[in-house]
Design a protein that fits this description.
Chain A is built from 7 helices and no strands. By secondary structure, chain A is mainly α. Classes of the chains: A mainly alpha, B mainly alpha. The interface between A and B is large, with 46 and 53 residues.
Chain lengths: 209, 563
């Protein structure tokens, strides 16, 4: 390209309509979604780190659970896991209802998700409290409390956000539009994250011996 | 001696001093969501930590002047001194310093108005001061003495309460780093102008993208490790205590899974800076642009597979060879960059500006640090020099000879954009020579004392090493002195430097297509990037640059004088 032509073409393009730029609102939504995905990918690594901890500490013992320690009964935790999965599903349906403009259905589903979430957390608290003395003398009990406690802190924080969203939803603050309902979508995605993190822990704690 | 030619923008003389609209200094002291303000906040605060950490290094070298204890009351006091030195330099200086340049430059290079999440950006910065206070308080209360790597049982059973504060502070800094990195990734992937495909993106953005991917994936492991350390220290758990079924190697595994990639967090942005500076100041396109961008990603990826080379002496023997191999593979993408830089300046029209001198300094020193890295990756050699001054020399060559030289290059290169004024080039050159030779004579002899067998992390050493140590200390004081030259230069140039104009280096990337300093919204109009970010030396690029100059002197609205 000759020099003169390059210059004119550059100055010309300043006047001409450019390639379309997304609107600020669209850009915000796109950024929020990508940011959430990266946050989930990043923060799940802490949970993986704790799984590595559990896995490496198993090598300190000849057997897992260590000799003289009764294995955890998976019955109640399995019920808790089912409740959490169902809760995530309800949160998802709640979001779908909101998107299709049915705000009372949204609130109903969201309420259900919260109640099941509380049920899950209650069982976990019970499990945390009922680890035997013998287990607590070994890494079997210690890592279990570490992992469930760490997960519980996250579940509690995100349940608080869900409550906040529920109250705002009750006042009719969200509409079906994607931009207006980002808070609901983001919170639901955080709750899926809690569910996924728990599934990983559940398998490691109760099923891999 | 090379001729120093400083190109000033064509319009520099036309601009009056008052045309520079800089934010008031008080803006920098309070909460702001403007990425340019936040960039300067990061930069100035981390430089202050550099001065503090540097003063501590001077203390370390003073102590090592004689083979006995003289400055320090005990070996433990010396341990806490190098612990806080390392912690400050890594967590409070180098990592946030790259957030400084990333914040200021990346949105401008992308032609964006701000980062994707401005509030989160400010929040990430404001976590640093409290974290720093917590860490520094710990040093004065009851110092941590387990080194910046904080290996248990030293850090659990022996170190003071400062170790607990250290872990809390590091936790906060890790969270800050993750939030900052999420912001960078989203900004770089989403907010480019539609004309700028990912293969037309400036290489600093590539480097920051790779760095941020490492930070978001690795830093959570640090959070995990620190959580365990805190629990062991305050809650009576025994994760790292063999007596309770714990395992000290657990810490080493999880800590290095973060901290080895963190080495690349500290140097990859510097490599991005180098590609910018070498290309712009030698007026040549980057040699092998795509491979340079991809090699950043390659380093990020392979960097996750090498952590256990820090544990060659404690690892299960059968795992050593695989980690030795992956470590050596890292040299491949690094070598690609090295040859790209050489190919870029080869036959170029080199201007020996201060920025260029520091970039060339990086080239020569980083190659030494890189090669000693390959030497250390070789298992038989590593076992021989493990925990000696050879290792100290190696990581200072990559972190000072690499990162700090790149930080200086970036400072001289972007200072005109940040402040609207040029830095003093004569002082810059003097600064470079003091730094370069001070550095070389401080750290190169450490290779030799290391191979002769001087262990690291000791205040008392065999008398035979004293002559070497005095040479090292003397050079270290020269190196320490050189810092005052750049501090003086920055302050003087901020008030009295020549007016820079929009594009003093005549560069093609977008940050030079707005006034210096840029207005709050960065660009008056949506900027259009030039086809090739480094397409120097063509008629088209010369015409483009003329057009940009034209736009700023007459044609387009000039945001700095407009309002």
């Amino acid at each position: 390209m000759s020099g003169e032509r390059a210059m004119t073409s550059y100055l010309d393009r300043r006047e001409k309509p450019k390639l379309a730029r997304p609107s600020d609102a669209d850009m915000r939504l796109k950024n929020n979604r990508l940011g959430m995905t990266i946050f989930q990918a990043s923060w799940v690594m802490v949970f993986l780190a704790l799984i590595v901890v559990n896995w490496q500490l198993r090598f300190s013992y000849k057997a897992w659970p260590p000799a003289g320690v009764a294995p955890f009964d998976p019955l109640l935790p399995s019920a808790a896991t089912a409740a959490l999965l169902l809760s995530s599903l309800l949160a998802r349906r709640g979001l779908a209802s909101l998107r299709s403009g049915r705000s009372s259905a949204f609130l109903m589903h969201w309420r259900g998700a919260m109640v099941l979430g509380i049920a899950f957390m209650s069982i976990i608290v019970y499990e945390f409290a009922s680890v035997s003395e013998a287990a607590m003398a070994t890494q079997y009990g210690l890592t279990m409390r570490l992992m469930t406690g760490f997960h519980f802190a996250h579940a509690l924080a995100i349940l608080a956000v869900m409550t906040h969203v529920y109250r705002k939803g009750g006042r009719g603050m969200y509409r079906g539009d994607e931009h207006d309902s980002w808070a609901v979508e983001g919170t639901a995605k955080l709750w899926y994250f809690v569910t996924l993190a728990w599934l990983l822990f559940y398998i490691v704690l109760y099923w891999i011996r | 001696m090379a001729t120093i030619a400083v190109p000033l923008g064509a319009q520099a003389e036309q601009q009056e001093a008052e045309a520079i609209r800089r934010p008031a200094l008080s803006e920098y002291l309070r909460w702001s969501v403007d990425h340019k303000i936040i960039g300067v906040q990061y930069g100035v605060s981390s430089f202050l930590f550099f001065l503090i950490g540097g003063a501590m290094a001077m203390g370390i070298r003073l102590e090592l002047w004689t083979p006995e204890l003289d400055l320090m009351v005990s070996g433990a006091a010396y341990n806490s001194l190098f612990t806080i030195h390392g912690t400050i330099m890594i967590f409070l200086f180098i990592i946030p310093m790259w957030a400084a340049f990333g914040n200021f430059v990346v949105p401008l290079q992308l032609g964006a108005k701000d980062m994707a999440f401005p509030w989160l950006n400010a929040f990430a910065f404001w976590l640093i001061p409290p974290a720093a206070i917590v860490v520094l308080l710990g040093y004065f209360v009851s110092p941590a003495e387990a080194g910046w790597t904080s290996y248990p049982p030293l850090s659990t059973l022996f170190s003071g309460d400062g170790q607990t504060l250290w872990a809390l502070g590091a936790h906060l800094l890790g969270i800050s780093s993750i939030m900052g990195s999420i912001n960078f990734i989203v900004t770089i992937l989403n907010m480019r102008p539609p004309e700028m495909t990912i293969w037309r993106m400036p290489l600093l953005c590539w480097a920051v993208l790779a760095t941020s991917i490492i930070a978001v994936m690795a830093t959570p492991f640090l959070a995990g490790a620190l959580t365990l350390l805190l629990l062991d220290r305050v809650a009576g758990t025994t994760f790292f205590d063999a007596a309770g079924g714990g395992d000290v190697l657990l810490w080493q595994n999880i800590f290095w899974f973060y901290s080895h990639p963190a080495v690349y967090i500290m140097v990859l942005p510097g490599m991005g800076v180098l590609s910018e500076v070498l290309s712009i100041h030698s007026r040549k396109p980057v040699f092998g642009y795509r491979m340079v961008g991809l090699s950043s990603m390659g380093i990020a990826f392979v960097g996750f597979t090498v952590w256990a080379h820090h544990m060659f002496t404690s690892l299960q023997p059968e795992l050593r060879i695989p980690f030795m191999i992956t470590t050596m593979i890292i040299a491949v993408p690094t070598g690609i960059k090295m040859f790209s830089w050489l190919g870029t300046i080869w036959g170029g029209k080199i201007r020996f500006t201060s920025a260029m001198l520091f970039a060339l300094g990086f080239l020569s020193l980083f190659v030494i640090g890189g090669i000693t890295g390959v030497m250390l990756a070789a298992l038989p050699f590593d076992i021989h020099v493990h925990d000696t001054y050879f290792v100290v020399s190696h990581f200072h060559f990559v972190l000072f000879g690499g990162s700090v030289f790149a930080i200086y290059a970036a400072l001289y290169h972007w200072f005109p954009k940040v402040t609207g004024r040029m830095m003093n080039e004569r002082l810059g050159v003097i600064h470079f020579f003091f730094t370069y030779f001070g550095f070389l004579f401080t750290f190169f002899p450490m290779h030799i004392v290391g191979m002769l067998g001087m262990p690291r992390r000791v205040a008392v050493y065999a008398e035979g090493f004293q002559a070497w140590n005095q040479l090292i200390s003397l050079s270290a004081f020269v190196l320490g002195f050189s810092t005052f030259i750049v501090v003086y230069n920055v302050i003087k140039s901020y008030y009295h430097g020549p007016i820079a104009g929009a594009n003093p280096w005549r560069a093609l990337t977008l940050e030079w297509q707005t006034t210096s300093p840029p207005p709050p919204t960065n660009f008056v109009d949506d900027p259009i990037p030039f086809e090739e970010p480094y397409g120097y030396g063509t008629e088209a690029s010369a015409a483009y640059l003329d057009a940009v100059d034209e736009a700023f002197s007459r044609g387009a609205p000039n945001p700095a004088s407009g309002h």
